Amino acid sequence: MRYLLPVSATDKLPPPAPGADPRPVPGQNPRLQWGLSLAVVVVGAVTIRPMGFTGQGLAVTALFVLNSAALLARGLPEHRVSPRATLIWLTLGIVAAAALTGVSSSGTGYLFAYFLAGHIGYRLDTRPALVLAATCSLLCAAVLYFHLGPGDPELPWVQGLTTGVPVVVGILNRSQRRAVRSALSAAESAERAARAEARTAVLTERARIARDVHDVLAHSLAGINMQLELADALLDTGDLKKVREATGTAHGLVKESLKQAQWTVHALREDALPLLESLTAMVESAGHQDALTVTGTVREVPARVTQNLLRIAQEALTNAARHAPGGPVAVELAFTAGSVTLRIRNGPATRAVTPGGGSGMGLIGMRERVALLDGRVGAGPVTEGQDRGGWQVEAVIPG
Fold first, then answer.
1. Long-range pairs, 20-25, Cβ under 8 A, ≥24
2. What is the 8-class DSSP label of residue 9?
3. Within 10 Å of residue 27's Cβ, how many Cβ atoms?
4. Chain centre to alpha carbon of residue 161
5. CA 100 to CA 97: how far, in whole Å?
6. pLDDT, position 367
7. Which of 31, 93, 310, 344 has the fewest CB atoms within 10 Å around its CB?
8. Contact predicate 222/249, CB 8 Å
9. How confident is the model at residue 9 (pLDDT cuts 50, 70, 90)?
């Protein structure tokens, strides 16, 4: 039997805090994005001309700074920039990129437009992303076609039309990111569900162990305690014979408890004996030779069924020995196509019954065991036949 360990509080997966970064998406490296952005800025600083602090150079320098800031802002986490601010920032970015393309006389200023268009597709929804990317293409093409600034004479206006094309790559990356995050979210939900299921299994296991502890110890310890109290009370009377009888009964209950503990160990072990052999040994060890009858075709049953049927048999045999000492006991194990039935019947007592009532937890434990296996159990007095006045327990387990 494999025991389940409790789920600790640190193993639980708390929900992400509002506004927190989502789980990183595999295959997307923020450092790579920063590296590409810095590379475009460095290449632009080296190649874009003229740059200075007067006239055209001042305009190129100012636009270069604006484009660099707009491009480097790609690294800002999405939750820190509102959708409206993102739209304004990217719109101003493509206007600055188109202006830089028209004002600079040479260099790679057009790269800012390409990278910003790609980020537009990644950051915005599809429809506004396509509209803004088309605007970027038209602005860059118009600046070059109509020569709205000094511009680079070797840069064709058709290239300006292509500046919006990277938006498609951005849209594909955004779609992939959302798909991966959805898969990660589903996996996280499944993990939480698995942990909840494991915790439920732990609680079920605890309840099962509690039933086993009760079945093995509660009745026997109560009987032992009662006999010891009786012996203690008899000491005052000086009736040593009755004292010895009480202590002898207590010793017998101790032996019975040890025997039950052995059967409990068998039930808890993963390599427990098969149902028929285990039940036969249990009945014989209880002092009832040839009391077991088997009907139907014997077959192996799942370990859970074996364990619970043995525990029910143990409880029933213990109750028979306690409440009907000396009475005949009959045990029947019936196999049918759709179920396994265990029936234990005892006749009325032929010896004096030790006073003291049970806690009633034994029958409750039987019902709980059978309920876990979707079966049914019945217990009640025998009203007819040679065992009239006795007691019968019947458990039916499907399968």
1. 20/79, 21/77, 21/79, 22/181, 23/181, 23/184, 23/185, 23/188, 25/177, 25/180, 25/181, 25/184
2. G
3. 9
4. 52
5. 5
6. 86
7. 31
8. no
9. very low
Contact (Cβ atoms closer than 8 angstroms) between residue 323 and residue 353: yes
Q: Considering the entire predicted model, what is its pTM?
A: 0.51
The span from the CA of 137 to the CA of 158, in Å, is: 9
Rounded to whole angstroms, the Cα distance separating 135 from 142 reads 10
Q: For residue 310, what are its two tokens?
A: 């043995």
Tokens of 274: 């098969």
Taking the CB of residue 269, how many other CB atoms lie within 10 A of it?
12
266, 361, 379 from 220: Cα distances, Å: 19, 13, 21
Got the DSSP string for 178-241? Answer: HHHHHHHHHHHHHHHHHHHHHHHHHHHHHHHHHHHHIIIIIHHHHHHHHHHHHHHHHHTTT-HH
Distance CA 318, CA 289 (A): 16
Q: Look at residue 375 and give its three-state secondary structure.
A: coil
For residue 178, report the phi and psi dihedrals to the nearest 5 degrees: -65, -40
Instruction: Flag whether pLDDT at 4 surpasses 60.
Output: no
332 phi and psi angles, rounded to 5 deg: -125, 130
Instruction: Say if residues 330 and 344 touch (Cβ distance below 8 Å).
Output: yes
Token digits of residue 284? 């014989």
User: What is the C-alpha to C-alpha distance for residues 183 and 179, in angstroms, rounded to an integer?
Assistant: 6
Question: Using CA atoms, how far apart are residues 380 and 387, in angstroms rounded to an integer?
Answer: 12
